[in-house]
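Fill in residues.
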């Protein structure tokens, strides 16, 4: 498979007198193969927008390399720009224009055939409201218009930041169908989203970023399989024993991936019997110990160390540094 998008060792450092030096991207890698729907995931402040803005030539990186369709950026940006459609920050539209006028204007500016306007209106489901003014549109309808504007030039690579934002469940399902259709027609789609269940349903592959570094990548099933191994759910006879149990296990080197109200999720457990022994030694008795298949949300929370902890309000950018051993480099590819 050929890569449509390649990023290697990308670095971006912000410096300010007040906040000092901040490594928004700290040697970040990403690779997206042709014809894939690829999920780009990371917690708030992890570097997603910085990556996408750097790719589009809006931010100058401090190091690393990037290529789109085999052409090195930023030098080749003018040559590849016509083949990349992107919505990275919510675009502003003239409120008194209709969707059809807006897209017509964009098509003329981009020297694209006017027939594309009706084609993309149909694709994003705005056909019947295309003549109404944008200011009368809901958030979800504006989101559809944004996607339509990115589709106008029939790009080879489509980059969408939070495309499901503001969409109702039906709209999310339609967006999912549209992404699949686009990929089937040969387009490569990169989606950043916080709706992890959606990403798991739509995407062929994912990249997870945390603190400016890639912490996982590869086909969705492979990322899930790598993390399902050794994932165990533990219930205790008394719910009040969960917190001391989490503490005991962590002290003994067992990874507690999440503390839920009525159970613990552990990862990397080779011998479940060790868990019950460790707990019993402390007078904590297990009522259930079950191997489980994890979902993308659990993997995300574990790798980015952003799972909620009872009694704590986790602060943005202060997530624990992710253990790089065994995770850096990722799986699959
Ligand atoms: N212009 C800037 N000056 C200083 N720091 C910045 C600037 N832009 C971004 N940052 C910092 O870089 C880090 C990465 O930000 P970025 O916007 O790329 O995150 P993100 O993953 O897109 O987050 P979100 O999911 O909240 O949109 C954050 O710590 C942010 O505060």
């Amino acid at each position: 498979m050929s890569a449509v998008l390649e990023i290697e060792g990308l670095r971006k450092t912000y410096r300010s007198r007040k906040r000092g030096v901040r490594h928004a991207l700290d040697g970040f890698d990403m690779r997206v193969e042709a014809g894939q729907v690829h999920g780009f995931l990371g917690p708030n402040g992890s570097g997603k927008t910085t990556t996408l803005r750097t790719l589009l030539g809006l931010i100058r990186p401090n190091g690393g390399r990037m290529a789109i369709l085999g052409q090195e950026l930023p030098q080749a940006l003018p040559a590849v720009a016509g083949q990349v459609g992107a919505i990275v920050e919510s675009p502003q539209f003239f409120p008194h224009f209709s969707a059809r006028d807006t897209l017509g204007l964009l098509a003329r500016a981009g020297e694209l055939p006017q027939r594309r306007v009706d084609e993309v209106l149909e694709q994003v489901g705005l056909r019947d409201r295309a003549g109404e003014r944008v200011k009368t549109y809901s958030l979800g309808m504006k989101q559809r218009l944004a996607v339509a504007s990115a589709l106008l030039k029939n790009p080879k690579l489509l980059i969408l930041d939070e495309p499901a934002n503001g969409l109702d469940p039906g709209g999310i399902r339609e967006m999912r169908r549209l992404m699949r259709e686009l990929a089937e027609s040969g387009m490569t789609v990169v989606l950043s989203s916080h709706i992890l269940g959606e990403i798991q349903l739509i995407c062929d592959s994912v990249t997870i970023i945390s603190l400016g570094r890639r912490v996982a990548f590869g086909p969705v099933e492979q990322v899930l399989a790598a993390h399902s191994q050794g994932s165990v759910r533990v219930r205790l006879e008394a719910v009040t024993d969960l917190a001391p149990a989490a503490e005991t296990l962590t002290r003994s080197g067992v990874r507690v991936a999440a503390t839920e109200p009525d159970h613990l999720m552990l990862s990397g457990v080779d011998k479940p019997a060790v868990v019950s022994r460790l707990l019993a030694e402390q007078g904590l008795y297990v009522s259930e110990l079950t191997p489980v298949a994890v979902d993308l949300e659990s993997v995300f929370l574990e790798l980015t160390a952003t799972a909620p902890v009872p009694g704590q309000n986790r602060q943005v950018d202060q997530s624990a540094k992710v253990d790089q051993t065994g995770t850096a480099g990722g799986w699959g590819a």
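The chain has two domains: 3-224, 232-292.
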